[in-house]
């Protein structure tokens, strides 16, 4: 039996499979129930609970992908950084110099990532009875990880990160290269533990110009996708608000590019070569719209990619925590009912 998401990543899909970024989490009452017993970070350390959270969207929506429940910032703990969620992420001692970066620990990922690897093992076993579902691993891309490691929290203007990048490009490239090596090791371990395809989240890359992205971020991104390709691991690259970066993302080596809603899907269908897949791109806020509008907009996306063989239906960014269940159901049902 073939798996629709893997088929799409190989360019051989007959219809568009569907999953959603942040499909597990606070919009689900059963997740909020589970969270009553654990803090977010404690839950990530409990593979049974994390596997349960990963599985909840499958039970409720029957989507084609199961993304392992974790967070892109968890690997920063392996470097010795102190991570907390309140509920936004806080890193207590942000990195502000190359010296501080060099003082971080040499991570033993097999050990420090043992919870997520165990969660993947559990999910792989559970998915034996659902052979069409694809188990997805993920990691934060070096630039986006660096924004949190350097700013210490979510940021609006990225003063410290960009200040560093413009003042000391060579030092900054060294950091991204080291984070790329860490990311490669992390994704290979996830693959060995059961992840059949992986998504690299470069959420904040869209804050950079095309020139800066190409010079500063593309090299470490290409290094990661080259390693994944070498190991035969299907891959997706996501960045938010990044339509101006598309020409560079095409050169990343990712099997598919996950795009947001700020440009019409037809823009990406024209731009992205036929050999590279497209994932996206409904505005997550569209799930708050009346049923008729959700159906119309979802169908419009599916119509535009018809015949491509490598489209994965998704949102343009993660589900918002207040998203109505009915909106999500309409989105998934529309994908199922579309006739290709
Ligand atoms: O369902 C899934 O997609 C799998 C799990 C997942 C989470 N975070 C769970 C989570 C994934 C893939 C992520 C990725 C992630 N985390 C990104 C990249 C994607 C994106 O959304 O842009 C980023 C930037 C983060 C960093 C992060 N984690 C922030 C800024 C926050 C706080 C804001 C918020 O949404 O709460 C988190 C916490 C987080 N990660 C939660 C979940 C379910 C909320 C935890 C809770 O309070 O229960």
Q: Can you characterise this structure?
A:
The chain is 48% helix and 11% strand. It has helices at residues 4-9, 29-35, 40-44, 47-61, 74-78, 98-102, 109-112, 114-126, 142-151, 159-167, 169-193, 210-230, 246-249, 265-271, 291-305, 325-337; strands spanning 65-67, 83-85, 89-91, 134-140, 197-201, 235-238, 256-258, 277-282, 311-315. Helix 4 (47-61) packs across helix 8 (114-126). It has 340 residues and is of the alpha/beta class. The protein has 16 helices and nine strands. The two termini are 20 Å apart. Helix 13 (246-249) links the parallel strand 6 (235-238) and strand 7. The longest helix has 25 residues, at 169-193. The strands form two sheets. It has a seven-stranded parallel β-sheet. Bound molecules: coproporphyrinogen III (CP3). Residues 21-26, 35, 40, 67, 69-73, 85, 87-89, 138, 154, 201, 203, 240, 318 line the site of coproporphyrinogen III. Coproporphyrinogen III (CP3) binds next to loops.
């Amino acid at each position: 039996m073939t798996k629709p998401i893997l088929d799409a990543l190989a360019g051989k899909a007959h219809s568009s499979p569907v999953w959603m970024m942040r499909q597990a989490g606070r919009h689900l009452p059963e997740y909020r129930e589970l969270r009553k017993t654990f803090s977010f970070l404690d839950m990530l350390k409990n593979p049974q609970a994390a596997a349960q959270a990963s599985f909840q969207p499958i039970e409720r929506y029957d989507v084609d992908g199961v993304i392992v429940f974790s967070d892109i910032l968890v690997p920063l703990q392996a470097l010795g950084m102190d991570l907390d969620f309140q509920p936004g992420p806080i890193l207590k001692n942000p990195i502000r110099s190359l010296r501080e970066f060099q003082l971080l620990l040499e991570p033993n990922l097999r050990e420090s990532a043992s919870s997520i690897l165990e969660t993947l093992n559990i999910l792989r076993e559970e998915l034996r009875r659902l052979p069409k579902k694809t188990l997805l691993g993920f990691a934060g891309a070096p630039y986006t990880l660096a924004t949190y490691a350097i700013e210490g929290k979510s940021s609006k203007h990225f003063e410290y990160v960009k200040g560093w990048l413009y003042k000391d490009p060579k030092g900054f490239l060294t950091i991204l290269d080291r984070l790329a090596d860490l990311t490669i090791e992390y994704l290979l371990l996830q693959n060995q533990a059961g992840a059949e395809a992986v998504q690299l989240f470069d959420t904040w890359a869209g804050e950079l110009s095309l020139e800066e992205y190409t010079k500063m971020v593309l090299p470490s991104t290409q290094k990661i996708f080259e390693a994944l390709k070498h190991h035969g691991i299907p891959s997706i690259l996501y960045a938010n608000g990044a339509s101006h970066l598309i020409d560079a993302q095409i050169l990343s080596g990712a099997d598919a590019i996950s795009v947001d809603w700020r440009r019409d899907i037809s823009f990406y269908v024209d731009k992205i070569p036929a050999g590279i897949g497209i994932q996206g791109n409904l505005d997550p806020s569209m799930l708050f719209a009346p049923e008729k509008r959700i159906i119309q907009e979802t169908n419009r996306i599916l119509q535009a990619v018809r015949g491509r063989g490598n489209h994965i239906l998704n949102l343009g960014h993660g589900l918002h925590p207040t998203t109505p269940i009915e909106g999500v159901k309409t989105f998934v049902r529309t994908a199922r009912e579309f006739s290709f």
